[in-house]
Amino acid sequence: MSGRTVLRDEGILKEIFQLYDTTGGDKIDVTQLGQVLRAAGLNPTQSEVHKVERDVGKSSVSFEEFLPIYNSVAQHMASVTSKATPEQVVDCFKHFDREGSGSISSSMLRHVLTSLGEKLTDEEFDTLSSGHVSSKGEINYETFVPAIMANAD
């Protein structure tokens, strides 16, 4: 859960929920569920958010309907505790390192991170890679991976 605190206080959850209630009807649009869950300290993937949105089956949810959704996502995230180590991630990067130099081109990494899986935007990639790109346009993944994983905690 990326080191963020998961909220258990119903009062704080209600306050967060109300920030997204733009109509004052004690409901939020179902498309805002991901934002509300993230504001409440959870970090669901886009595919998890889309599944929740589909499961809700309507266009808006009340706070009373939101609470079980929040608790379900929090339980799911707590059960998915397998976190990769920096060494495991470095091993993955080695598959892209054809010369075995410990570096990969930033353009290749940009392509992978902006087009596969949980896609980053170009701006997110630029922020992530800032300070790690050499004058040759390469990223030393053996220093890059531990640095970004330490920042994620």
Q: What report would you give on this structure?
A:
The chain is mainly alpha-helical. It is 54% helix and 8% strand. The protein has eight helices and four strands; from the N terminus they run αβααβααβααβα. The chain has helices spanning 10-19, 33-39, 46-56, 63-79, 86-93, 106-115, 122-129, 141-152, and strands at 27-29, 60-62, 103-105, 138-140. A two-stranded antiparallel sheet has the order 1-2. A two-stranded antiparallel ribbon has the order 3-4. Mean pLDDT is 87; it is low at 1-5.
The spatial strand order of the largest sheet comes to: 1-2
* Number of contiguous helices: 8
Report the portion of residues in β strands. Answer: 5-15%
Number of extended strands: 4
Order of helices and strands: HEHHEHHEHHEH
The coarse overall form would be: elongated
End-to-end gap: 9 Å
Helix coverage percent: 40-55%
- What structural category do the secondary elements indicate? mainly alpha
The low-pLDDT segments are 1-5
Query: Largest beta sheet, briefly?
Result: 2 strands, antiparallel
Outline the secondary-structure elements:
Blueprint: H1 10-19, E1 27-29, H2 33-39, H3 46-56, E2 60-62, H4 63-79, H5 86-93, E3 103-105, H6 106-115, H7 122-129, E4 138-140, H8 141-152
Antiparallel strand pairs: 1-2, 3-4
Helix pairs in contact: 5-8
